[in-house]
Specification:
By secondary structure, the protein is an all-alpha fold. The chain has 19 helices and 2 strands. A hairpin with a 5-residue loop joins strand 1 and strand 2.
Length: about 525
């Protein structure tokens, strides 16, 4: 009787590389520790929870260092020969860069939050410390998981783990109607976007029979003609949830009210980490999973980029300096405009022969944006300590009362505008502009140039306000150490990056995938 060789099929037995998954795992474990410790600590000692959270995020960021030696994958299917067939989690260069952005941004947010929670104590809008830190760490764990995800199921789960705690963080201010409305609007619109994304994922799975990104890329190259339309619909719908997280138009309407209703550190978190989650998700599903359908997502993302930057900058231009919370609203609409710039290189990747270079432009811009935008929110939190309505007009005379804070904020605004001495902002915009031109998207480059000019006006107007004489006496309070650290760190990073902007592009674009 002749023996028949067993077919080489994938084994469901998976190995776990604990070092590879350490960064998000540490954040998740510290979140659980904080949640349990909150039950046993008295009110006077709950401030320790904040510092435990800061230490946990720092440890998670440091856990990235051992992963720099080379790519690592885990949760992999293996053939009977022991070869890797497909993996759900990969710690490559792209993953490490985005995880660094997420964890460093969450760490700076935590430093802002330590001060914010202390200021809110014994007020009608006191923030529950244990719940706050648990939610922040949980969201950061999900955000750190997403760039490492290499199948659609893990991507969607990571997106929701990052998003669900964020809903609660937005509405965490007690007895604040504005905060509750912002959380409800954020939640309902996000749930709708997630439902559409899941529909798209189901279409892709029905077409390809797999959820692994690399296998989807292979299967989509030879889709049967009768399933071609279904595959196109799946590709388009899958992008919706990630476009929502990036605040791309027309999925942006939740942004201004949510930023105003949320505590300022949470608004800063959403403006940076929320965007990192959305953009890393878009990059993975387009460049890794759907490269053969670039004719579908390329034009769609180019149109989204043009629409997003235009709507965001025009809305920011219309903000009235004396309106309550106008400074936060301007930063909110500015973040929408910046999202448009970030989408440009991803759209260009559909038309470019070197997709890695185009995606590197987005990652480099995201690193610059994260540092300076968190810094701008940190200075806004400083001003809010004496001017809780946070109007742009409240920043008049800031140079006289707090010269260093005014100079730092002016530097951040010039970086966002792309003007010297904010060299890193100028460099990032030129890099994005070049990606559009190199891909043959001249019309998109023109739209971007027009929007950069529009943005110059409101950024320079706010910068000029810092040096105008104040109306009346300016109240001066001592700046808490955590807030000082957050402002100082972002300023040092911004200045360092402006001194060596090429280093950022090299770090962001070298061997992404």
């Amino acid at each position: 009787m002749t023996a028949v060789a067993a077919p080489s099929v994938a084994s469901l037995v998976q190995s776990v590389d604990w070092l590879a998954i350490a960064p998000p795992t540490i954040a998740a474990v510290v979140a659980l520790v904080v949640l349990v410790a909150d039950l046993f600590l008295g009110e006077r000692r709950k401030a320790l929870l904040g510092w435990v959270s800061v230490a946990g995020l720092a440890a998670a960021a440091l856990a990235l260092l051992p992963l720099l030696d080379g790519d690592r994958s885990t949760f992999c299917l293996k053939t009977l020969k022991g070869e890797q067939a497909a993996c759900s989690y990969t710690a490559d260069h792209f993953t490490l860069v985005i995880q660094f952005l997420v964890l460093a941004g969450a760490l700076l947010t935590a430093l802002l939050s330590v001060t914010g929670i202390k200021d809110a104590k014994n007020t009608p809008r006191e923030l529950p410390e244990g719940e706050f830190w648990f939610l922040l760490l949980s969201s950061a764990a999900g955000a750190a998981l997403l760039p490492a995800s290499r199948d659609l199921a893990t991507l969607v789960v990571a997106l929701e783990v990052a998003s669900l705690p964020a809903f609660a963080l937005v509405g965490i201010k007690r007895d604040d109607r504005r905060s509750s409305e912002a959380a409800l609007k954020f939640f309902l619109s996000s749930v709708t976007a997630t439902a559409v994304t899941l529909l798209g994922v189901s279409f892709v799975y029905a077409t390809t029979g797999t959820l692994y990104l690399t296998r989807i890329a292979t299967a989509l190259t030879h889709v049967d003609g009768q399933f071609h339309t279904l595959a196109q619909a799946g590709v388009a719908l899958t992008l919706v949830g990630f476009a929502f997280k990036t605040a791309a138009v027309p999925f942006h309407f939740w942004v201004p009210d949510t930023y105003v209703g949320a505590p300022l550190p949470v608004a800063a978190y959403l403006s940076v980490i929320g965007k990192a989650v959305g953009f890393s998700g878009i990059i993975l599903v387009t460049v890794v999973a759907f490269p053969s359908y670039a004719d579908v997502w390329g034009p769609a993302l180019a149109a989204l980029a043009a629409l997003t930057m235009t709507v965001g900058n025009v809305a920011a231009l219309r903000q009235q300096a004396t309106r309550a919370y106008s400074a936060v609203r301007l930063l909110a609409w500015s973040s929408v405009g910046q999202a448009g710039y970030l989408l440009v290189p991803i759209a260009a990747a559909a038309y470019s022969k070197d997709a890695d270079k185009a995606i590197g432009s987005t990652v480099a811009y995201a690193l610059m944006y994260a540092a300076v935008n968190l810094g701008a929110f940190a200075v806004a939190a400083l001003v809010a300590r004496t001017k809780p309505l946070n109007r742009i007009s409240d920043y008049r005379g800031l140079y006289r009362s707090r010269p260093l804070a005014a100079l730092v904020l002016g530097f951040f605004l010039l970086c966002l505008a792309g003007l010297p001495p904010g060299i890193i902002g100028l460099f990032a915009k030129v890099t994005v502009f070049s990606a559009a031109v190199d891909a043959g998207l001249g019309w998109l480059a023109v739209v971007m140039a027009v929007n950069v000019v529009i943005a110059l006006y409101y950024y320079l107007q706010w910068t000029a306000t810092l040096f105008r004489p104040a109306e009346g006496e300016q109240a001066v309070q001592r700046i808490p150490a955590p807030l000082t650290a957050a402002i100082g760190l972002t300023a040092v990073i911004g200045v360092a990056l402006s001194g060596a902007p090429q280093m950022v592009l090299r770090f962001a674009s070298t061997g992404l995938f």
